[in-house]
């Protein structure tokens, strides 16, 4: 099978025809699950893969078997199919936690070879300090913005992968005397050249330039991102320690969408670690720190 590509500006300019051989595609299971130490429920997508020219609909088998193991022991029971989301779902009695261990996710469905992937839970790295200052930073256009600084110490002698998320948290005392706390995400940016833009996380980065030492990430958020004048308001920073596969998947997925429909961009292959199929099984652990803001 071949695909002909025609490029050119107009009839008076150059054109080129390139014959591209497209290999036959064998449909395999796709398993996609991103799991964090903070999760008390886990979802997994199970589908089939399609060839580049295949226009048929994806198959989401409802009779698949999905299991999650930690150090060889089954966590909970088998996943159940969630019809509304076309995903498989597992409810845990408590958050997964950051206990070190080898995690294995398996999936099988009639008509397909079974697939699996294994990951070790990354050890969370504590946030040593979190600072927030109104109008304490300058954005990429030279305008004043609120400043955020996150400091932590990277473990030495190993490759580490990180991501950051931010929230503001407001606690409100109800007439019953109970305290209700809710969180809203904050979208922060940075001029730090170590930081890359991910798909699920705004900031993803490695420790290649600061291995084994203390590092401070300086960011900015636009005025109004964190409300002023609200009592009991806190800024919360969540520092994720990512598995290598989690980092590569998030970064490559963002690069894939950046290149999509761009005739001048090089094609991007989204990172996969599923044995016998396609997709991602990615782990992350999280450490949090909060600071009161006025």
Explain this structure to me?
With about 290 residues, the chain is mainly β. It folds into two domains: about 30-120 and about 270-285, Sandwich (Immunoglobulin-like); about 125-245 and about 290-294, Immunoglobulin-like. About 5% of the residues lie in helices and about 50% in strands. It has one helix and 18 strands. Strands 3, 4, 7, 8, 13, 14, 15, 17 and 18 form a nine-stranded mixed beta sheet that branches. The longest helix has 16 residues, at about 245-260.
Primary descriptors:
294 residues, 5% helix, 48% strand, 1 helix, mainly beta, 9-stranded mixed sheet, Immunoglobulin-like, single chain, 2 domains, globular
Query: Looking at CATH, which topology of the largest domain would you report?
Result: Immunoglobulin-like
- Structural class category: mainly beta
Task: Determine the strand fraction and express it as a percent band.
Answer: over 45%
Shape: globular
Number of strands: 18
Q: Give the SSE string.
A: EEEEEEEEEEEEEEEEEHE
Tell me the domain tally.
Answer: 2
SS field, number of helical segments: 1
| Rg over alpha carbons | 23 Å
Query: Any low-confidence stretches, pLDDT <50, length ≥5?
Result: none
What summary fits the major beta sheet? Answer: 9 strands, mixed
CATH architecture of the largest domain: Sandwich
Q: Taking all residues together, what is the mean pLDDT?
A: 90
The helicity comes to under 10%
In the CATH hierarchy, what is the class of the largest domain? Mainly Beta
Give the termini separation. Answer: 64 Å
């Amino acid at each position: 099978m071949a695909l002909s590509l025609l490029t050119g500006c107009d009839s008076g300019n150059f054109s080129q025809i390139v014959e591209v051989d497209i290999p036959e595609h064998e449909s395999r299971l796709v398993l996609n699950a991103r799991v964090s130490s903070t999760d008390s429920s886990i979802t997994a997508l199970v589908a089939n893969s399609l060839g580049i020219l295949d226009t048929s609909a994806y198959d989401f088998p409802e009779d698949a078997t999905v299991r999650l193991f930690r150090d060889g022991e089954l966590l909970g029971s088998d996943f159940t199919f969630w019809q509304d989301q076309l995903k498989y779902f597992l409810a845990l009695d408590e958050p997964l936690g950051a206990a070190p261990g080898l995690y294995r996710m398996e999936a099988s469905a009639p008509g397909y070879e079974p697939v699996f992937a294994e990951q070790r839970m990354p050890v969370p790295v504590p946030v040593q300090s979190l600072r927030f200052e109104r109008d304490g930073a300058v954005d990429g256009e030279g305008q004043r913005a609120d400043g955020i600084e996150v400091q932590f110490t990277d473990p030495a002698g190993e490759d580490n992968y990180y991501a950051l998320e931010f929230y503001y948290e407001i606690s409100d005392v109800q007439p019953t005397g109970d305290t209700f706390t809710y969180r809203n995400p904050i979208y922060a940016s940075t001029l730090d050249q170590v930081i890359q833009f991910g798909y699920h996380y705004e900031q993803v980065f490695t420790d290649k330039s600061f291995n084994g030492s203390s590092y401070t990430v300086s960011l900015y958020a636009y005025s109004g991102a964190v409300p002023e004048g609200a009592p009991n308001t806190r800024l919360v920073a969540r520092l994720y320690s990512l598995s290598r596969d989690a980092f590569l998947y998030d970064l490559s997925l963002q690069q894939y969408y950046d290149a999509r429909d761009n005739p001048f961009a090089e094609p991007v292959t989204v990172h996969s670690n599923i044995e016998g199929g396609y997709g991602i099984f990615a782990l992350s652990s999280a450490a949090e720190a909060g600071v009161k803001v006025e």
